[in-house]
């Protein structure tokens, strides 16, 4: 008898196939399944209105009696008391929740399907007995689960975490999983060797590889550190001749490697390079020239995606784009926004015209508005658009054409670029903005009024990236009470000067200069507008326009951020640069938005205290970790004592990534984090007073983490040697600065690896 | 430099700034400006050649944590925007607020100086290569792309107008040192 039960935690259901004991082997797996809805008897074929149900698929091994497929529903709107289905007589029933349509594909071939709805989500009696034996580790060698079932379910699993879980169940399932895996994700290219990957997964079509530690983005890792793709390519060419997709992040990629990719993989479709370095436009020429190749055995290779983001590359000229052959029509994604030199517009226009499936086009800033209009006319089907500079003197007729072109883009979800955006032309976007879910203005200097007007047309916005000019200071009238009238005047005056973004008012009274910088609440008004116009906003990133201007003594108010949190209750991802912050503001923000999963606050002056109370920012991050129980990623800044880390260790139980800079008072801080954050995977620390005791307190922990980075801390070479000695399966690498003393370990990078120490380490990387 | 100290005295010691005690710090390691650009509080010192812009020794490497690509773009933007717009800020010692002038609008130094004199109701005087503006009540100076403060008039107009980022009309007495740079 097949039975479904609701588990004890209340967040999932289980399915019993036959009687046995159920043991949870793996705890956190995701699967997206189903395209059919079942109500009553039989199946309909509908999928809910844009509600995707993420189903935790959870394979458990059982004793003889039951084979258990546990499918957990995980969605914020699942309420306790939602109905569950029950299986009887070998049938399967879907779980239907109010407002969310969930379904299973009829994975169980050959079984008849009946359904019954049970309103009361209690467990059925037969399940209760098994609950008690849940923890006993009985493994059977072979799974009573029919192979076709397993294969079918595996084909629905895309998440590598799920697949990892499946592979841990038993040897048979490990094999079934590895043969069926087509996409492999490698978060640290040195944690495994290409040979090991090729051995385990014979049928890979798509590879995602990440190389250098994240702090290499900020120039903390010297050149030629490694993470070269070429060793991987050599193995892939042999093992995965049908490789279709490569997604690389922080890898070193040479022109030769690009040529190798272009010529070695007959089925190659998709190349994405993010934050990579080492290549030039010559390499792109190879990719373009070989994008469409008629190969006797394999038919025709057709490139569909070329996505270049924020790479450090040599821009030797735009001729590469002209290398796409004229009969090449399959491009779907083209992103060259970050390239600096001109491309041939004729070639680009021709390419866009003939590639009817093009859905993502991000051009660089050399493309003018008029050219953009011509491109849009050719590709109204675009889903993602990166505009060029968006600045030009347009004749009225061209303006009208541009507006029409945008109005015809009915499917635009993502808009970026707007590098020099001339605010006069922003209104052309208004109609198309209605469908926008992601607006990236992080390279656009918009004034608050322009931003406000634009976001007013983006009611569906979920992600917003902004650039803020932080060069202003709020005039605190209370401080200069007797000057309040004049400050009011000054404020009024600043609004009267439309050309001025800022006003520096100097008053000389008695023998004193009063330097009052009046805030043009540019940013705050803009953010307030966001708060009121974009209720669906989930992600906000605010970058600084003046990151290095040290003259700004005081920061801008955080009231804008608070305003967003008030209006956008679904906010769960924030990256926010500011010059100062207060504990109270952060507390308010997380109270308004308790669902943060990613909270990255960067107070740009290292060690900056709460500007209102002059106290450390401990309570701010304490509030974050206490309130935001789902927090996965946290970046802290400002003046912080060990108390912050005590809070983190105590409350941030779901934390996976933590970034720390210029913070903490003693080893205790780091020890609290290592001891308390059970799910920690990545820890990156710079310029903190953590030493060997802290480093070594994590001995047991590092093997369950992807990596640890510590630079400019108090760790010594001896401490690192000890770590390396105790934990042979970790790679403990030290990079030394030339000027420092021999005993200090300036930059320490520790990561788990099944491939042993690096073979390609440059001389400045010492593997201990 | 003597001038720098004089300025320090004027601005720092007698300044009533908004903020809490102890929050007015300019830690050594974060100071990324050259001495000569220290004259004005809100000068931005390091917007030079962004192509090969290694951080100066006193700047904290890799902070704030912004990807190099983005950092370069923003710096280029600032240079570009400043250059393209040609609107530069003009401050005058003792004036209640700043003004902006469009350098593109003027074709030569005399035109610019006349305009400035009208704007601020001051007398700037005549430039001489040897003496600068010595003898006048005010001397016009400007900050160039490298962050250095220069005397207006030394270089050809074209060179000046493309490299000038902001103008400051200094009191003649303070400007004395500039003539001999």
TrEMBL record, chain A:
<dbReference type="InterPro" id="IPR001611">
    <property type="entry name" value="Leu-rich_rpt"/>
</dbReference>
<dbReference type="Pfam" id="PF18791">
    <property type="entry name" value="Transp_inhibit"/>
</dbReference>
<dbReference type="GO" id="GO:0031146">
    <property type="term" value="P:SCF-dependent proteasomal ubiquitin-dependent protein catabolic process"/>
</dbReference>
<dbReference type="Pfam" id="PF13516">
    <property type="entry name" value="LRR_6"/>
</dbReference>
<dbReference type="InterPro" id="IPR041567">
    <property type="entry name" value="COI1_F-box"/>
</dbReference>
<dbReference type="GO" id="GO:0019005">
    <property type="term" value="C:SCF ubiquitin ligase complex"/>
</dbReference>
<feature type="domain" description="F-box">
    <location>
        <begin position="145"/>
        <end position="186"/>
    </location>
</feature>
<protein>
    <recommendedName>
        <fullName>F-box domain-containing protein</fullName>
    </recommendedName>
</protein>
<dbReference type="InterPro" id="IPR006553">
    <property type="entry name" value="Leu-rich_rpt_Cys-con_subtyp"/>
</dbReference>
<dbReference type="InterPro" id="IPR041101">
    <property type="entry name" value="Transp_inhibit"/>
</dbReference>
<dbReference type="InterPro" id="IPR032675">
    <property type="entry name" value="LRR_dom_sf"/>
</dbReference>
<dbReference type="Pfam" id="PF18511">
    <property type="entry name" value="F-box_5"/>
</dbReference>
<dbReference type="GO" id="GO:0009734">
    <property type="term" value="P:auxin-activated signaling pathway"/>
</dbReference>
<dbReference type="InterPro" id="IPR001810">
    <property type="entry name" value="F-box_dom"/>
</dbReference>
<keyword id="KW-0927">Auxin signaling pathway</keyword>
UniProtKB/TrEMBL annotation, chain B:
<dbReference type="InterPro" id="IPR053793">
    <property type="entry name" value="PB1-like"/>
</dbReference>
<comment type="similarity">
    <text>Belongs to the Aux/IAA family.</text>
</comment>
<dbReference type="GO" id="GO:0005634">
    <property type="term" value="C:nucleus"/>
</dbReference>
<comment type="subunit">
    <text>Homodimers and heterodimers.</text>
</comment>
<dbReference type="InterPro" id="IPR003311">
    <property type="entry name" value="AUX_IAA"/>
</dbReference>
<dbReference type="GO" id="GO:0006355">
    <property type="term" value="P:regulation of DNA-templated transcription"/>
</dbReference>
<dbReference type="Pfam" id="PF02309">
    <property type="entry name" value="AUX_IAA"/>
</dbReference>
<protein>
    <recommendedName>
        <fullName>Auxin-responsive protein</fullName>
    </recommendedName>
</protein>
<comment type="function">
    <text>Aux/IAA proteins are short-lived transcriptional factors that function as repressors of early auxin response genes at low auxin concentrations.</text>
</comment>
<keyword id="KW-0805">Transcription regulation</keyword>
<keyword id="KW-0539">Nucleus</keyword>
<dbReference type="InterPro" id="IPR033389">
    <property type="entry name" value="AUX/IAA_dom"/>
</dbReference>
<keyword id="KW-0927">Auxin signaling pathway</keyword>
<keyword id="KW-0804">Transcription</keyword>
<dbReference type="GO" id="GO:0009734">
    <property type="term" value="P:auxin-activated signaling pathway"/>
</dbReference>
<keyword id="KW-0678">Repressor</keyword>
<feature type="region of interest" description="Disordered">
    <location>
        <begin position="1"/>
        <end position="59"/>
    </location>
</feature>
<feature type="domain" description="PB1">
    <location>
        <begin position="85"/>
        <end position="172"/>
    </location>
</feature>
């Amino acid at each position: 008898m097949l039975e479904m039960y609701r588990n004890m935690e209340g967040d999932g259901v289980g399915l019993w196939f036959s009687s046995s004991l159920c043991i949870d082997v793996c705890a956190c797996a995701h699967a997206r399944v189903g395209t059919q809805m079942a109500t009553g008897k039989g199946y309909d074929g509908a999928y809910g209105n844009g509600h995707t149900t993420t189903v935790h698929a959870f394979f458990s091994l059982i004793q003889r009696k039951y084979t258990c497929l546990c499918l957990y529903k995980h969605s914020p709107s699942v309420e306790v008391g939602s109905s569950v289905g029950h299986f009887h007589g070998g049938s399967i029933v879907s779980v239907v929740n109010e407002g969310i349509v969930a379904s299973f594909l009829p994975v169980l071939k050959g079984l008849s399907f009946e359904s019954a709805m049970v309103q009361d989500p209690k467990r059925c009696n037969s399940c209760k007995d098994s609950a008690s034996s849940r923890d006993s580790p009985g493994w059977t060698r072979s799974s009573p689960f029919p192979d076709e079932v397993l294969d079918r379910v595996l084909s629905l699993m895309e998440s590598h975490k799920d697949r990892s879980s499946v592979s841990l169940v038993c040897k048979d399932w490990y094999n079934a999983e590895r043969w069926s895996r087509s996409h492999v994700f490698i978060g640290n290219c040195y944690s495994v060797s290409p040979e090991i990957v090729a051995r385990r997964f014979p049928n890979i079509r798509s590879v995602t590889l990440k190389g250098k530690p994240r702090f290499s983005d900020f120039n903390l890792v010297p050149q030629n550190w490694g993470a070269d793709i070429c060793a991987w390519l050599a193995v892939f060419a042999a093992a995965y001749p049908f490789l279709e997709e490569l997604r690389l992040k922080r890898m070193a990629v040479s022109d030769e490697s690009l040529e190798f990719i272009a010529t070695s993989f007959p089925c190659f479709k998709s190349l994405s390079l993010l934050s990579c370095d080492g290549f030039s436009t010559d390499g792109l020429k190879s990719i373009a020239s070989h994008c469409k190749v008629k190969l006797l055995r394999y038919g025709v290779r057709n490139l569909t995606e070329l996505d270049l983001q924020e790479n450090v590359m040599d821009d030797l000229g735009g001729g590469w784009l002209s290398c796409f052959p004229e009969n090449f029509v399959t491009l779907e994604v083209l992103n060259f926004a970050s390239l600096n030199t001109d491309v041939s517009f004729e070639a680009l226009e021709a390419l866009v015209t003939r590639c009817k499936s093009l859905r993502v086009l991000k051009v660089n800033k050399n493309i003018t508005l008029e050219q953009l209009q011509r491109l849009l006319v050719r590709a109204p089907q675009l889903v993602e658009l990166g505009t060029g500079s968006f600045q030009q003197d347009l004749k009225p007729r061209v303006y009208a054409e541009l507006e029409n072109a945008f109005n015809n883009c009915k499917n635009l979800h993502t808009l970026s670029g707007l590098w020099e955006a001339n605010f006069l032309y922003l209104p052309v976007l208004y109609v198309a903005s209605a469908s926008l879910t992601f607006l990236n203005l992080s390279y656009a200097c918009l004034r608050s009024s322009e931003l406000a007007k634009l976001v007013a047309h983006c009611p569906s916005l979920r992600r917003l990236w902004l650039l803020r000019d932080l060069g202003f200071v709020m005039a605190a009238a209370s401080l200069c009470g007797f000057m309040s009238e004049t400050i009011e005047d000054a404020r009024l005056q600043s609004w009267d000067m439309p050309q001025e973004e800022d006003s520096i008012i100097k008053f000389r009274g008695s023998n004193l200069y009063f330097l009052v910088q009046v805030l043009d609440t540019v940013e705050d008004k803009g953010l307030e507008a966001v708060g009121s116009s974009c209720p669906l906003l989930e992600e906000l990133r605010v970058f600084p326009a003046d990151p290095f201007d040290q003259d700004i003594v005081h920061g801008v108010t955080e009231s804008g951020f608070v305003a967003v949190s008030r209006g956008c209750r679904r906010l769960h991802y924030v990256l926010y640069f500011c010059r100062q912050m207060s504990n109270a503001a952060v507390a308010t923000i997380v109270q308004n938005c308790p669902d943060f999963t990613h909270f990255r606050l960067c107070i740009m002056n290292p060690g900056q205290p709460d500007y209102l109370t002059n106290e450390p920012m401990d309570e701010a991050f304490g509030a974050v970790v206490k309130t935001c129980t789902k927090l996965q990623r946290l970046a802290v800044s400002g003046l912080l004592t060990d108390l912050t880390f005590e809070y983190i260790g105590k409350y941030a139980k779901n934390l996976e990534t933590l970034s720390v800079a210029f913070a903490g008072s003693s080893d205790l801080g780091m020890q609290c984090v290592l001891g308390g954050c059970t799910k920690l995977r990545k820890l990156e620390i710079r310029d903190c007073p953590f030493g060997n005791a802290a480093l070594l307190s994590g001995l047991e922990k590092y093997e369950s983490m992807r990596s640890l980075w510590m630079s400019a801390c108090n760790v010594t070479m001896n401490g690192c040697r000890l770590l390396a000695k105790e934990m042979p399966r970790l790679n403990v690498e030290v990079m030394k600065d030339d000027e420092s003393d021999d005993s200090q370990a300036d930059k320490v990078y520790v990561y788990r690896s099944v491939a042993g120490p690096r073979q390609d380490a440059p001389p400045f990387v010492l593997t201990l | 430099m003597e001038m720098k100290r004089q300025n320090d005295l004027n601005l720092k010691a007698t300044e009533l700034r908004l903020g809490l005690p102890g929050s007015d710090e300019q830690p050594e390691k974060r100071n990324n400006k050259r001495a000569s650009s220290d004259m004005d509080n809100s000068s931005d010192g390091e917007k030079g050649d962004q192509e090969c812009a290694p951080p100066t020794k006193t700047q904290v490497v890799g902070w704030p944590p912004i990807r190099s690509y983005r950092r370069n773009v923003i710096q280029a933007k600032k240079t570009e925007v400043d250059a393209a717009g040609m609107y530069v800020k003009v401050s005058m010692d003792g004036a209640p607020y700043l003004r902006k002038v469009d350098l593109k609008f003027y074709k030569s130094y005399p035109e610019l100086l006349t305009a400035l004199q009208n704007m601020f109701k001051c007398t700037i005087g005549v430039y001489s290569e040897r003496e600068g503006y010595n003898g006048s009540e005010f001397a016009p100076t400007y900050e160039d792309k490298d962050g250095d403060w220069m005397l207006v008039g030394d270089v050809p107009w074209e060179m000046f107008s493309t490299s000038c980022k902001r103008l400051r009309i200094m009191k003649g007495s303070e400007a004395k040192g500039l003539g001999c740079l």
